[in-house]
Design brief:
heterodimer, A: Rossmann fold, four-stranded parallel beta sheet, B: alpha+beta, Cytochrome-c3 Hydrogenase, chain B, three-stranded antiparallel beta sheet, 15 helices, 48% helix
């Protein structure tokens, strides 16, 4: 069916009815990004063990397409902050975050990364990693089960697909 | 003669083989390691200071977060230390359940050791077999306490709840499958020629050096020293079980792996005996919610953790909170042997040495 592009009532809905999609490239990219995060291999306590369990055969993070754990921050677009951020670790986290190419997202895994958790009273702990990096999704738990991590990742997927993530250029 | 310059590179703290926040300052001459200095403290959570503001019972969950690979062992060490301090008798059944849970934790820790060693050597598939079997232990922990990894199942004076009916058959079938698991690891992993070449003769530690450095646990036994606190100074009810202490001969990375591999089998034997002897009865002694040990009394209690001698030193000032609590962390002490075993080796062997010394940074930094 021919569509007259010069006609005035050519709004998006009419175009869609005629199988013409109107979008911006950014939206397509965001949709694509949401299907394959490349998480950074970062973590410093109990939570990485559950992350490891999530990537092993039983829970199998590869079902969602998020299994490409990268060792270098320059190849990753998602940092799963698993474990507490100590005063000594803070500059490292800042530097790792700065090294990651944009667009990039943060998932705070576990109570320590969310709020300081049980160690909040300690003298060497920051009350959550959101004091250092902009967090998109918080996953509570001490440690969260692998299923909880997946839930967090799928929430992040929704957020990224809609373009509503925290750290935008 | 070719003149070379020394080069310092930093391994970690963000590194796939850093085992969670370990920073190694490696001084290299070409590919040969001149020195490898471990820097710890990136996961320092001030646990010992927090202990001073918690009652004895409130501190129980924190201990699980020290060595999160052998979940129950640090908790057992702590509650036993407090029981020693306050003079509390633990019911028989609780003691047996503690042994079963402790040995399951040891197996879980050693399985993760084998899996992460395989990853560090580039054999990513090796992890999958170990994690598959480890999940069965996680299931058993979940059955008893509702938490997979950090089950604070132990209480001062006993355990939190009695075993559910499905627990005992699950443990029995798991213990029955241990030889099969080991055989599978042997066929899929240990038999690999590259795997052996990366481990045999690497990171040798002599018995004298190990003792001088205070190295304990499987790392010490790999050097040929038959020393296990479960035998040398039996705590709880460990004097009732018949098991062997596996020892190595060379003290190299391969022996450290083999000793742990053998320990899985021995732990299975202990669990089997404990299941056969498991009595009925009370699971928890009557302990007041708030209790105050005698003023000025102090206690040092040590157990054979998954990594070595895990000790708790507690001083009481007569209040409901400890005046001072110190953890003798085997990971920290074992890690200090890293420069010794790495010197003169190649840069790739630093990773092998970190992995086979098996430090848990949560415990080393505390």
């Amino acid at each position: 069916m021919a569509v007259d592009l010069n006609k005035e009532n050519n709004d998006v809905e009419v175009l869609q009815k005629n199988n013409i999609l109107v979008t911006t490239l950014e939206k397509i990219w965001d949709w694509g990004r949401s299907w394959s995060f490349w998480p950074l291999n970062y973590g410093c306590n109990c939570c990485p063990i559950e992350m490891l369990a999530a990537s092993a055969a039983r829970f199998d993070i590869a079902r969602y397409g998020y299994e490409v754990f990268r060792a270098s921050p320059r190849q990753a677009d998602l940092i799963i902050v698993a474990g507490p951020v100590t005063l000594k670790m803070k500059p490292i986290l800042e530097r790792v975050w700065a090294q990651m190419p944009e667009p990039k997202w943060v998932l705070a895994m576990g109570n320590c990364a969310t709020s300081g958790g049980p160690f909040k009273d300690g003298y060497s702990i920051l009350p959550g990693c959101d004091t250092v990096v902009p967090v998109d999704v918080y996953v509570p738990g001490c440690p969260p089960r692998p299923e909880a991590l997946f839930h967090g990742l799928l929430e992040l997927k929704k957020k990224v697909a809609s373009g509503q993530y925290t750290h935008r250029r | 003669m070719l003149q070379t310059e020394q080069l310092t590179i930093n391994i970690g703290p963000q590194h796939p083989s850093a085992h969670g926040g370990l920073h190694v300052e490696a001084v290299l001459d070409g590919e040969v390691v001149v020195d490898a200095i471990p820097h710890v403290g990136y996961v320092h959570r001030s646990v010992e200071k927090i202990a001073e503001s918690r009652t004895y019972a409130q501190f129980v969950p924190y201990t699980a977060r020290l060595d999160y690979l052998g979940t129950h062992l640090p908790v057992i060490g702590y509650v036993q230390a407090v029981e020693k301090l306050a003079g509390i008798e633990v019911p028989e059944r609780a003691e047996y359940i503690r042994v079963i849970m402790g040995e399951l934790s040891r197996i879980a820790s050693h399985q993760l050791f084998i899996g992460s060693l395989a990853i560090d050597l580039g054999a990513t598939t090796g992890l999958l077999y170990c994690m598959r079997d480890r999940e069965r232990i996680m299931d058993m922990f979940e059955m008893t306490s509702g938490q997979r990894l950090l089950a604070a199942y132990m209480r001062i004076g006993g355990i939190a709840e009695d075993l559910p009916p499905e627990f005992l058959p699950a443990v029995r079938s798991f213990v029955r499958d241990i030889p099969k698991m080991i055989k599978e690891y042997q066929g899929l992993l240990y038999g690999n020629e590259i795997f052996q070449a990366r481990l045999k003769g690497i990171g040798k530690l002599s018995a004298q050096d190990a003792i001088a450095y205070g190295v304990t646990g499987p790392n010490l036994r790999a050097c040929g020293v038959s020393y296990d606190i479960r035998k040398a100074e039996p705590y709880g009810i460990y004097d009732r079980f018949d098991f062997e202490i596996p020892v190595g001969s060379n003290g190299d990375a391969w022996d450290r792996l083999m000793v742990r591999n053998e320990e899985i089998i021995q732990s299975g034997r202990i669990i089997e005996q404990a299941l056969d002897q498991l009595p009925e009865g009370e699971i928890r002694a009557k302990v007041p919610r708030v209790f105050k040990p005698e003023k000025g009394k102090s206690v040092y209690h040590r157990i054979e953790g998954a990594k070595g001698e895990l000790g708790y030193y507690i001083v009481s000032d007569g209040g409901e909170k400890p005046y001072r609590l110190h953890v003798r962390a085997p990971s920290f002490v074992n890690l200090m042997a890293l420069p010794l075993v790495s010197r003169g080796g190649l840069v790739q062997d630093i990773i092998v040495n970190i992995a086979t010394l098996d430090p848990v940074l949560g415990e080393a930094d505390r």
